[in-house]
Automatic annotation (TrEMBL):
MF term (GO), any: ATP binding
Coiled coil: none
UniProt KW ATP-binding keyword: yes
Protein name: ATP-binding protein
Assigned keywords, A-Z: ATP-binding, Nucleotide-binding
One matching Pfam family: AAA_10
Length: 469
């Protein structure tokens, strides 16, 4: 019972200021019931202009992404990193993304296709559907007048040619060129470019000049001609591998006439190259520099450079340095670089950790599919993902990924149309768990994903009773 003084005070206050607000008793309820009181909200999207990816899992709304539309507003760089273990939908995402981008007239895509089956690359079916012949780099086919790319192509600047030659040699040797070997290479390259004017210079010319240097090169440095020959011996042996070794035929002649650099889709089929050999990063370097000087132009086109097995680039200091320059240069001319990697540990713990960090920093978009818990935690530390995203990555089902677009983090279900399905799920992809699902199974998988997401939220928020004022 209230004391008389309090009653008198309340009566006097009500007389002067009107009736005081009554005190509401707290309502005890659960989080499930509280959803009816506090309406659900969803994180803002990325706008409504660009390529449809799928839908955001928690809100169900459409998810649209386009680095060219977002660049300069929500994205400091248009480059994109895709991570995840095999069988979780990376391949399907890449292919549908490219197909949807090509519906815009000002888009052009180059794919380095390092995976394949039955003698062709993974992108062969899409290329055929678009009436495009892949550029198949195959040492055996090259011997029978197959595709050739010339590192000394006149379309590449003299400086670019020398940088490319150094990179090829450094990748093969596993260390940088010393000053003497670098000098021998430089004078051989300069002599070949000055004296061969009636045709394209080729690697054979460089090797021959390294073995038999001109006296003028020795006189310029006031050294013996035998010294210059000795300095260039290791360089000549490395380049000889491209001329008369296991990579012969692909780079030891003039660039093949007829490669259509104006096609909407250009596919370099590297599936015949051993992915674990030193040949792959060498190929990546040659193709990357060749494209830099022949493909990227100031013509207002938006270009996408998608690289499968991109750890061959990021894990080599010398190749990574070339691609760093390409990314910085290409950004001004409308280039979006898409790197597809299975595990981030493949690159951040490798020999090119510094270069890898620089390339990862330029990738403002990161898409992470399911990974094991330890790998997810390591990925989260490197990429700076929020804790909730790191914890949910190991629970993701095929086709669902965490998207981090310059700090805007959402969980997205990638959707494939019936028209795209035959092109996206090739024979190899059909072995993946997400590939051969029927429509009913797809629907069931989506429901399961939503239930798992809800269970995750429930686990962290709890369903204990809470007080709502």
């Amino acid at each position: 019972m209230r004391d008389p003084l309090s009653v008198l005070t309340d009566a006097f206050t009500s007389f002067l200021f009107g009736k005081v607000e009554t005190t509401r008793l707290p309502v005890r309820t659960s989080t499930g019931q509280a959803q009816a009181v506090y309406l659900p909200t969803a994180a803002p999207g990325l706008g409504d202009s660009g390529v449809i990816i799928g839908r955001e899992v928690y809100s169900g709304k459409g998810y649209i992404y386009d680095p060219f539309q977002l660049y300069g507003q929500q994205l400091p760089a248009p480059h994109w990193l895709v991570l995840g273990e095999s069988g979780n939908g990376k391949s399907a995402l890449e292919k549908t993304y490219v197909l949807r981008q090509l519906r815009f007239r000002d888009r052009q895509v180059v794919v380095l296709d390092a995976q394949g089956e039955d003698g062709v690359g993974e992108w062969n079916l899409i290329a055929q559907e678009l009436g495009i012949t892949p550029i198949r780099l195959d040492p055996m086919a090259a011997l029978d007048m197959g595709i050739r790319l010339n590192p000394l192509d006149p379309a590449i600047t003299t400086t670019g040619q020398l940088a490319l030659l150094r990179t090829i040699i450094e990748v093969a040797m596993g260390h940088g060129l010393d000053e003497r070997s670098g000098f021998a290479l430089k004078v051989a390259h300069a002599y070949v470019n000055e004296t061969i004017v009636d045709r394209q210079p080729v690697l054979t010319d460089i090797v021959e000049q390294l073995r038999h240097p001109e006296p003028e090169s020795a006189e310029a440095m006031n050294v013996a001609i035998d010294d210059v020959r000795a300095w260039g011996l290791d360089v000549a042996l490395v380049l000889d591998r491209l001329v008369d070794g296991d990579l012969r035929g692909m780079f030891d002649g003039p660039t093949t006439v007829g490669i259509d650099l104006d096609a909407p889709l250009i596919v370099f089929d590297l599936s015949h190259i051993d992915r674990n050999s030193i040949a792959m990063p060498i190929l990546m370097a040659i193709v990357g520099v060749w494209l830099e000087h022949t493909w990227i132009r100031p013509d207002r086109k938006k270009r996408i450079f998608l690289v499968e097995e991109a750890w061959h680039i990021i894990n080599s200091p010398f190749v990574a340095q070339l691609f760093q320059r390409l990314l910085k240069f290409g950004r001004r001319l409308g280039l979006s670089f898409v790197a597809v990697v299975h595990h981030l540990s493949d690159v951040v713990d490798g020999a090119a950790a510094k270069e890898a960090a620089a390339i990862l920093k330029m990738a403002s978009t990161r898409t992470i599919y399911a990974q094991k818990a330890d790998e997810a935690r390591a990925t989260g530390r490197v990429l700076g993902l929020p804790r909730w995203a790191v914890e949910i990555i190991p629970t993701l089902t095929p086709g669902i990924a965490v998207w981090d677009v310059n700090g805007n983090v959402q969980v997205v279900k990638h959707l494939v149309t019936e028209t795209e399905r035959p092109l996206v799920f090739t024979d190899r992809a059909m072995t993946e768990a997400s590939a051969d699902l029927t429509d009913d199974a797809l629907h069931a998988a989506e429901l399961e994903a939503e239930e798992r997401a809800a269970a995750f939220v429930e686990h962290h928020l709890g369903d204990s009773e809470s007080t709502v004022a």
